[in-house]
Structures are given as structure tokens and as C-alpha cells.
Amino acid sequence: MAVAHLLAALATLLVAAHALGALFARFRQPRVIGEIAAGLVLGPTLLGHVAPGAESRLFPAAGVTPTVLGAVYQLGLLLLLFCSGAQIRSGHRRGENKTVGWVFSTGTVLPFLAGLGLLHVLDLRSSWGPRANAASFLLIFAIAMAVTSIPVISKIMHDLGILDTSFARVVLGVAVAEDIVLYVILAVSLGLAQGGTGTLFGLPTLLGMGPGTAADMAYHVVATLAVLGAALTFGPRLYRAAATWRFNLIRQASPVAYDLALMLAATLLCLFLGIEGFFGAFVAGVAVGRATEPAAGTETTAGQGIAPDAIRSIQGFAFAFFIPIYFAVVGLQLDLLRGFDAGFFLVFLLLACAVKAGSVYLGARLSGRASASSWNLAVALNARGGPGIVVASVAYGAGIIDRPFYAVLVMLAIVTSLFAGSWLAHVPRERLLTEEPLLTGQPLRIE
């Protein structure tokens, strides 16, 4: 009976997520929004409201089903971050450097500083989770103001047929740089949370660090940056060397298993270091992606043929099963009928959009872009999508934010992504194709 309940829950989530995801995609909206909508339909927002008995039977609060769903949810998060990290290499193209530099500087720094400043005006102590402290909540709030989605905006531009334009290269170049910085800050924030994994397991415990102390904060900042630096500097080289080693039986048996083992090993290493595990999956993806990227001016590398097919295989099953269920479970955790402050959400939505879009517009104008082009960049980079949802779900799972504020952050990601898709779909395609490039860049390839 327990197995039957579990399979029914998984099948229902999987079918609903893909069905609504395809429906949203048909209307040229982000598929991820449909997957979250599946959770809203099956969770307390709709099914739990009209038929609470059916919802509780399908998704019981105790037993095998919630345990396994939690495990699939965690694996979906790790695979999402691994795949996102592996695709980051696609955003690194020469050209448009002036615009990317200005937009990244203003579009990341100003919203982050605005988020820090708003907390001195808004009293959000009631939105703290059970493990939050001032530092961890402050960083999460600031990240929510500044985050941008690579997968959502790249899919929108792919559907519009503008991925090989100057506009697309600038958007993805800025989004790549922003996501790297903000994932580092997110990992630090979770490390600073009271009672986090770093205080219960691994090196910080061996060093005798107390939670929330100056030494604890300094350690998490240094350790997170050190892991990122090591992954970028040595990761691709070590990956290639290990992949071509004659005694690497795992890779010889299955390149997919080799990449997954690397992801899990990096996750475990980060957990031991007191860093949140998702960051290990992210930097593993970055290292693998860079290791398999053709060198400048060449068509192949030593790593070519080792991992691109494996990455595509991982993406195939991850986006078929684990990641849709991850986003559907995000929707399951939302209750927009009880505890959701619509008034506060509207105020927060307007503030977040004004700060982010205004900062991007300012950077684009300072770089020499025309007003219309600057507005298009501002709307595109305001889409928070998957990364915004990851920030919300990870912070909620770590006890930094409470359930109502979690719902606000998820809805912020949904609304901004829908708005970006609608805006760009109504901009004349010829205008996006002919937006002035400031420097010549290489064509952008999104696999």
C-alpha cells in the first residue's frame, strides 16, 4: 500500500507538471511556471481547498511518500544546479564587453544595496524562519532583489529566434556573472544561519567554531570563495586528467555515471566544509562545462567527446523526471489562500521590479545603449525564474524565511518571468535583431 501511494503521488506530479509545462510553453511562457502551477493545483492552494481529503490521501504528511518526495526534491535541486553550472560556459562570449560590464555592475550592486537598505525601513522580523538571524535573512532578502534567471530568459529568446544577436549575448553574459556571484552569497547566507549544517557536521565543528561568531562568518565567506576559485582554476584540468586516466573504470563503464559521481563528490565535499551542498553541485557543473568547451579558435579539445554527450543525457532524464517534480513540489508547498499577504506581495513586487529594472536601464544607458534597447534589457534581466525559486526554496528549507515570505519570493519569480516573456514577445522581432552591437561578438550557442 505504501508503494502504491508513493507511485501514485510521483505519477500524478510528473503528469501534471509536464502537461501544464507544455501548456505554458505553447503560449510562449516559461515551462517552469507551468510545472509550479501543477503543484499549486494539486496542493493546498486548489485541491486542498476544494477536496482536502483527496489532497491529504494523495500527499500524506507522514510515511514513505513525503520521505521519498523529499529525496527526489533534493536530487532535483542538485541536478538543476549541476545542469545550470554546465551551461554557464555558453554565456562567456567575447564582444559587448562595455554593456555587460556596466549592466552587471549597476544591475547587481544597486539592487543588492537597495535590498540591504530596505530592511532598515521595512520591519520584516515576522518573516524570519526558525533558524534565521539578521545576517542570513539580510543576504537572502538582498539576493531576491538582484537575482536573474538564465534558463528562463534563454528559453524566451530561443523561442523568439534571437539567440545569435547582440541583445542575447549581453543578457546572458550579465546573467551568468550575476548568478555566479549570487550563488556564492546564497551559500554564505545558509552557512550563517543558526543551526545550519556547518555547525553540526564537518570541518567547522572540528575547528570548534560557534554558530554566528565572527570566525564562523569569516570562515564561510573564505571557504565558499575558495571552493569556487579552485573549481574554476583546477576543476577543468583535473576533470580532463581523470577522464582520460586508463584506470578510470567508472568513466569507461558510463560517462554519465562519472559526471554524476563527480557531482555527488563535490556536494559531499562542500557539506564537509560546512558549505551548503547545492553549491558543490553548481561548481561541479561549472567545472565540467568548462572542461568540455572547445578552446578559442578550435573545434575540439581534449575533453570534447568525453562529457557533452553525458551532460545531454543527464539533462535528458533530469528535465524529464527530477526537475519537473522539484518545481511541482515547490508549488505543493505554497498556500496562496491562507497566510499569503497579497498587499505586501504587490508592494514587494513593485519595489523589486523598479529597483532591478531601473538599475539595469541605468547601466545600459551609461554604456551607450539607446533608450528602447535599454528598456528591453531591463525587462529581460528582471526575470527571476528558476534561480529566484531556488533561492526561495533553499532559504525556506534552511529555516531562514517563513512560509508566507517563501510564497512571496516564489510568486515574484513567477510574475517577473511571465512579464518578461510577454514583453519580449510583443517587441517587434526586427528591433531585437537590429539592436546596435557595441563590439563584435561570436555567435552564441545554447545547447
Give a quick set of tags describing it.
mainly alpha, 0% strand, 447 residues
List strands and helices in order, with pairings.
Elements: H1 2-26, H2 31-42, H3 47-50, H4 52-58, H5 64-87, H6 97-118, H7 134-146, H8 150-160, H9 166-192, H10 203-206, H11 214-233, H12 235-243, H13 249-253, H14 255-272, H15 277-291, H16 308-332, H17 342-366, H18 371-381, H19 385-397, H20 403-426, H21 429-433
Mean pLDDT: 81
Provide the β-strand percentage band: under 5%
Report the helical percentage: over 70%
- Biggest sheet, in brief? none
Per DSSP, the total helix count is 21
What low-confidence regions span 5 or more consecutive residues with pLDDT below 50? 296-305, 437-447
Give the termini separation: 42 Å
Rg result: 21 Å
Order of H and E elements: HHHHHHHHHHHHHHHHHHHHH
Q: Output the structural class.
A: mainly alpha
Give the overall silhouette. Answer: globular
Annotation, overall tally of beta strands: 0
Q: What do you see in this structure?
A:
The chain is mainly α and 447 residues long. 71% of the residues lie in helices and 0% in strands. The protein is built from 21 helices and no strands. Mean pLDDT is 81; it is low at 296-305 and 437-447.
